[in-house]
Structure formats: structure tokens, C-alpha cells
């Protein structure tokens, strides 16, 4: 059923054929799942409920590329000058966006809900960041926005007698941001080293869903095309390593090249025929495999849709739940021993992290497929988890909200969370306990990661498994392999039109 006879096609004609195929497929509506987020209503305050605790999990702001586009050296590390200079640093736009997000959070938590005092109180807030410059600086910028203009001289910063007039940045309130080392940070880094996760991902790769996906003729053709153009082996796991720096360069092209050259001039092979959209789409699908949600029925008797989220987001869930319990224990009775000092006045706990962190957490909650707009997790995208107490009945509940981008409102997504009712605006705290029972690691992460899924024996082949790397996410710093592929070998094979099956 091939519509082409490859031997008679010269290379140009093959590309035309490929692009025809890509263009036809791309014109189909691929984003049915994204309709929901855009249609969601903004949050409405319920005056019967008192907000008692809030957690924020956000992505850092706009940044420099993490590395060059594989096989292309146009924009090396020293081309990136902002945010301290070099790869991966937060840009001034990223700082501004987090500052504005901080102002938005102030509007919610100080003005609208009176959760926080109008001036900085060290006992009320705790800010944690991954140990990356861009997430740390995002957090500084965010709290700077949150408390901008609220500072009191002699309280929040030194008076003029101590610092010569005008030298202290006007109104600047230093606010601590805590961090932990990368290797132990399973709250911020779903991709921290974990043998068990590698084993589970190898299992995903052996699944019919994954094999059908990578062997889909259209996907395979695009990977072959991009491999040929970059001279590297582009796979669904590492396509982000190529696509992500192009995205960052695109956003900063006028600074990177002051001649007015456009990004399309640098990568004409990429900016053609919906290749950018396809690359995004393939990368997002790769995220779903990585997060365990593309194999809802499990693989070889292992429920990867539980086991993988447990590793990638279980530790964050555990932290979230213990914070909620800690705060509520003190609220119930601040003199009992289960009320720890740290929680006595805690109102707000924020985590400054990465797109992979948000994707993993939203996947665990079961909301990812409904609320992530096309293009993945935007810079400064934020998930909020809020605990309420009914003013009369004292009944406790929670809300989950998502802020997809600077352009979007903070929208409630509670009804999409596993176990929550689609008919209620809030969800019972018992659902949080259910999630913890199912997804929180029973042990510490080191123990979990050293627990083999099958005692180290591959159930398919019976051989001892040699774990492969789990896939890079959009922010992976994993270098792609440089082995050249015989790129056109697939193109000379049969083209099979398979556009009638939408994959999501
Ligand atoms: C962050 O800062 C450190 C020095 O504090 C530097 O070595 C590193 O290259 C910077 N960039 C990233 C992405 O961590
Ligand atoms: C890409 O394809 C062209 C045309 O067939 C071929 O000449 C070239 O060697 C390929 N490049 C790589 C890196 O595979
Ligand atoms: C900027 O773009 C022009 C035109 O494409 C090119 O000649 C020049 O080398 C580029 N400069 C840098 C610094 O990339
Ligand atoms: C709080 O706990 C203390 C110590 O157990 C107890 O004496 C006190 O009555 C409790 N207060 C309330 C309001 O329950
Ligand atoms: C970011 O958010 C906007 C608005 O919700 C959305 O249209 C866009 O696709 C998102 N993704 C990216 C990568 O910009």
C-alpha cells in the first residue's frame, strides 16, 4: 500500500514526499486534550471557607539555552551573556516574569485571602529551590515581587545610618531561599539518579505502546530527517536536546545576532512544514512515557503508572502531605507535641523547580493530560495546592490550581485530580491521604531506588537487566550520541500513510 515507488525518487522528491505527509498529518486537530484548560473558568472565592495553608510549585523563568543545538555551533556558551553569563542562566525577562508572578501571588494570598501578613514574616513562608542558578534566582525574583513595596526601613533592611544613602537597592528585602544538593533532591529533580527508575523505563521501552509509537512511520520519518539534518541520532528520548536550545535561541535571537538575522535563517531545515510542532509533540509524548502515564494498563504485570510517579513525584507528594499535616496539627492545638515549631505559623511553602518537576507532579495527580496546553510547561507555570477550613463546620478540604502562563488566570483544576468529584469546587483531604497511600514511597528514596523491580532479572529475556538511561526531559543536559545514522535508509523504504489514528 505504498503510494511512492522509492527507487525512482531522487532525494529532493523524497523530501517533498515527506513534507507532504507531514503537512497533511499536521493539519489534523491533534490537541483535543488541550481544549479543557483554555475553557476552564477562573477561580471564585468561597466566603464560607478560610484558606489556612498554600503550597506553590513553579517552573523557573525564561533562560539561556542549556547547550548548543547538536551538530551546530552558531551560538556557543559565550554567546549567552545575561543572568551571569553562559548556558542555562535566567534572563532578565525570566526575572521580570517571576517578579510579576510574585505580585500575583501577593494579590491572592495577602489581598484576596489574607493568608499572609502584609509585611514579610519569616515564620509564615518557606521557599525551597533546586540547586540551579536559574531556579534560585527565579525564587529570589518571585519573593521580591511578592513583598515589593512592603518593606519597612530598620526592619526589613538597614536604615540610612548604616548604609550610605541610596546604596541599598530601593525597597529590597532579602528573603531566604533554601536548597539541597542535586543528587539527593527527589522533590525538585525527578531525574535524580535512581536505578529502579532506569529499570522501570526500560520496561516502558519494551511495551507495545512504546514500540508502536517509535515505529510509527511518521514519527520514524521525522526522527530520520532530523538525524540527517543534525548529523546526530535523534530519538524520542533526546529530541528535546535539539528542540529546546532552538526554542531558547529563538526567544533571544535579536540579542544573539544583532544583524537582524532570524532564527529561521539559522535553522531552515527545522522551521519548515510544522517540524517545530511535531518536535514539540514527540517530546511531550516522550514525557508521558517517562512519567509512566502512557502505559495505563501497566507492562508485564508492573503498574508503571504508579511505580514511576512514585519515584518521580512521590517524594514531593510526601513533603506536601507532611507539611499539610504539620500545619493542621498546630492549628488544632499548638501546645501538643505533634505541633512542631516550624509549622506553628507556616502559611506558605513554595518550591522553585523545573518543567520536569511539574510534569511529574501533574502526572501523579492525573491532571496532566487535561490541563497542560500545547507546547508543554511554560516558563513560570505554577501549580498551587491550597488547604481550606470551613468557617462553621471546620471541615477541611483542598483546591488545586494551575497558572499556565503569564497570560493566563490562576484556574482551579481540582475536579480533574484523581479521586476528587467533578461536581465540587473543593476536594476532601481524605483524597490526599489516598494519594499518599498509593503514590508516596514507603521508604526513603535511596532505599526505593535500590530496590529492583524484578530482582534485577529482565522478565522478557530472563537475563540480568542492564539499566538504560531514563529519557531526558525538556531540560535534560544529557548530550545526544553523535553516531551518524544512515539517515535515508528509512526514507527509501515504504511510506505508509497512518494519519487516520490520532494518538491523544
Ligand atoms: C551557576 O553558578 C555556578 C557558580 O556558583 C557556576 O559554576 C555554574 O556554571 C552556574 N550555572 C549553572 C547552570 O549552574
Ligand atoms: C543526509 O542525507 C544526505 C542525502 O542523502 C546525505 O548526503 C548526507 O550524508 C546525510 N547526512 C548525514 C549526517 O547522515
Ligand atoms: C549573524 O547573522 C549573520 C547573517 O546570517 C551572519 O553572517 C553572522 O555571522 C551572524 N553573527 C553571529 C555572531 O552569529
Ligand atoms: C491542647 O493540648 C493540651 C496538652 O495536651 C491540653 O492540655 C489542652 O487542653 C489542649 N487544648 C485544646 C483547645 O484542645
Ligand atoms: C504557554 O502558554 C500559552 C498560553 O496558555 C499557550 O498558548 C502556549 O502554548 C504555552 N506553551 C508554550 C511553550 O509557550
From TrEMBL:
Gene3D superfamilies documented for this protein: Phosphoglycerate mutase-like (3.40.50.1240)
Keyword list, A-Z: Disulfide bond, Glycoprotein, Hydrolase, Signal
Domain of life assignment: Eukaryota
Enzyme Commission number, as recorded: 3.1.3.2
Similarity comment: Belongs to the histidine acid phosphatase family.
Catalysed reaction equations from the record: a phosphate monoester + H2O = an alcohol + phosphate
Matches recorded under InterPro entries: His_Pase_clade-2, His_PPase_superfam, Histidine_acid_phosphatase
GO MF annotations, alphabetized: acid phosphatase activity
Name of the protein in its database record: acid phosphatase
PANTHER family: ACID PHOSPHATASE-RELATED, PROSTATIC ACID PHOSPHATASE
Signal peptide: 1-27
